[in-house]
Amino acid sequence: MRYAFMLVLLITITGFHGCGNLKEETIPPGRIGITFWHGMSGPLGKVLTTMMDEYNQSQEQYYVIGINMGSYDTLQKKILASVVAGRSPDISQNYEALTLKLSEAGKLVCLDDLIAAEPDAKEFVADIIPVMLRNNTFNGKLWSFPFNKSVPVLYYNKDMFREVGLDPEKPPVTTDQMREYCRKLTRDLDGDGEADVLGYGMTIRNEWNWSCVFMSFGGVLFDEPTRRVFLDTEAGYKATAFYYDMIREGTAKFAEGYDHQNDWLAGKVAMFESSIVSRVFLKGKIRFDFGVAPIAQGDVRPAVVLSGTNINIFNSGNSAKIAGAWDFIKWFTNTDNGARWSIESTYIPVRQSSLNTEKIQSIFAEDPNFAAPYKQLDYAEFVPRIPDWFECRVKISDELEQVYIKAADQRDSGQSAEQDLVKLHLERMQKNVTGVLVNSLETLL
């Protein structure tokens, strides 16, 4: 098959030479080795490694070896190459899109069978946060387990709020309020006619945030049965115009990568939206009073897009390894460890019981900023779970980038979004994404 040939070629391209194979000397005598491929690095990787070490010390039957692939992109490529080579890890982080195809190809273990063997199977399933359970269920079966899940939140400078007369305990709730707040927060501090502080900073490729606003205006990203997208709609126009207008008014700016977060730290912008996990990387750098809140919403329904990876167990045919992989997943995501993972990484725990632990509830009481992502779980949704959606996201970001650049060129014009321009890019977005879906291969392996 064409895709199989491409994946064999991928082995050479990615330099797959058995990466992740266990060395016998690293496994204590009598233990069953479990390989875990992941993409966690930096402070998040340290938390994961510490918890894996503690798992290995907690029992004497299994021994998990974590192998960091450096990035999620590399991880996905390595997984594909390992499947073709017949040398898959025992467990790995993975996105839903690839999980679907790997499950259809018989490469994964269905978790329903493992859960059914648990003495408290019904309670076990009921404890998984509903949106995460749905996110990992394909064609009525659970093929992966939620692992590191996050949602975007609003970070804002409370000191700047006070300086312009805004209540620091009342961040913007709606997109209209966001526009209003940005106007008040944008200031020329030295009187040279140029704003030194802007209300809002954003990454120029903000497809994730745009998708949240788009859905909150009533938009539908994707219909799985028909594989159709609905981007060039009124909701698409309102979401794009929301960012366009703020940039054009000169109350918001865009930047590459994470520079908008650096602008916030430097006091150049008052607010930005990003993953709740950004707080881990901002920790120790913030020199002002700040708040974390749910993101601003459109006028139809609250919506936020759940992001992050899940864990797969690969179908090696080795029942002992499968049992060990499942034992580690249960341990890592149990009530207490799930709470600890959330506290130390800021990822959302996957169990309701973890949210109800005394540890997390006490942090809610001590630090209101910690509660922001959890307030959004009741209306969280997830992106289309198809392999070609990764390319679709690129197409969406490409068009949004062009809109924002045009808005910056027209800065201070005093006009609202150019309807023809915004609609033109939405039409291109719709056409490009539809083209990806139509031309994509139905079979991965």
Q: What's the rounded overall pLDDT mean?
A: 90
How many domain regions? 2
- Give the full name of the CATH homologous superfamily of the largest domain: Periplasmic binding protein-like II
What is the percent of helical residues? 40-55%
Secondary-structure-derived class: alpha/beta
Distance between the termini: 8 Å
Radius of gyration: 23 Å
β-strand percent reads 15-25%
CATH class of the largest domain: Alpha Beta
CATH architecture of the largest domain: 3-Layer(aba) Sandwich
| Annotation, overall tally of beta strands | 15
Reported for the largest beta sheet, the result is: 6 strands, mixed
Uncertain segments are: 1-25, 441-445
CATH topology of the largest domain: D-Maltodextrin-Binding Protein, domain 2
Individual helix count: 19
Shape: globular
Protein described:
The chain is α/β, with parallel strands linked by helices and 445 residues long. The chain folds into two domains: 2-149 and 309-367, 3-Layer(aba) Sandwich (D-Maltodextrin-Binding Protein, domain 2); 152-305 and 382-439, D-Maltodextrin-Binding Protein, domain 2, CATH 3.40.190. It has helices at residues 2-14, 42-58, 72-85, 96-104, 111-116, 121-126, 130-135, 158-163, 175-185, 207-216, 234-249, 259-265, 278-282, 319-332, 335-345, 352-355, 358-366, 389-409, 419-439; strands spanning 32-38, 62-68, 91-94, 137-138, 141-142, 145-150, 152-157, 198-203, 222-223, 228-229, 252-255, 269-275, 290-293, 304-313, 380-382. The strands form four sheets. Strands 1, 2, 3, 6, 14 and 15 form a six-stranded mixed β-sheet that branches. A five-stranded mixed β-sheet has the order 11-8-12-7-13. A hairpin with a 2-residue loop joins strand 4 and strand 5 (141-142). The N and C termini lie close together (8 Å).
